Fold this protein.
Amino acid sequence: MLELSDIGVRFGGLRALDGVSLSVADSEIVGLVGPNGAGKTTLFNVISGNLRPQRGSLRFAGADIGSVPAYARARLGIGRTFQIPQPMHTLTVAENLAVAQRFGASRVDAQAAAEILDLVQLTGLASRDAATSLSLAELKALEVAKALATRPRMLLLDEVLAGLEAVAKRRFTQMLADIHARYKLAIVIIEHDIETISTLCPRAAVLNFGQLIADGTPSVVFSQPDVVASYTGTVPDA
């Protein structure tokens, strides 16, 4: 479904992404991990069209999307969330979904919105002001709901579990698994918690200093010395 080849992004003298090649298949769940500043969100910005790379190519569902703007990529089926929840102010939870549907799917579908709200456990809050009435976990659930409302074929989740306590994180992880089972969409999730990635994702890809240094099953990836070193700064004993 998604094919990235030799992606390169520079910010002045900083190589934010350096020759990254990555593919994601239909319905696949991939955990994208790495230390802070590794280039994970930059890669999401490239995929979603918020940032144009200086080199490399991007294909989605067989089509070259390198010059396709962000709004058009959303309508092709690339949905995403952001690290900091961005509810639409003065709108209710339900109205936030309606705007997202209009943006990504070109039409409002009340039944589909109701199904999404049920999946993310926000049905009882549909009429609440999204910007002022929700907890952090609920705001993050709304971010996922808005992305789903665009009818994506691929969902990019940028640290949606960050800041949640352990019980809420486990519930959120199960919610994501339920969403995947219901819609059969591809999911790429940025997450620092190795346990969460190992539970949710059959595959993990690791970025460090803008380079892809590992890609495989979590059990194999998280045992590799260069991956351990990227997190701890030390190489484990052989």
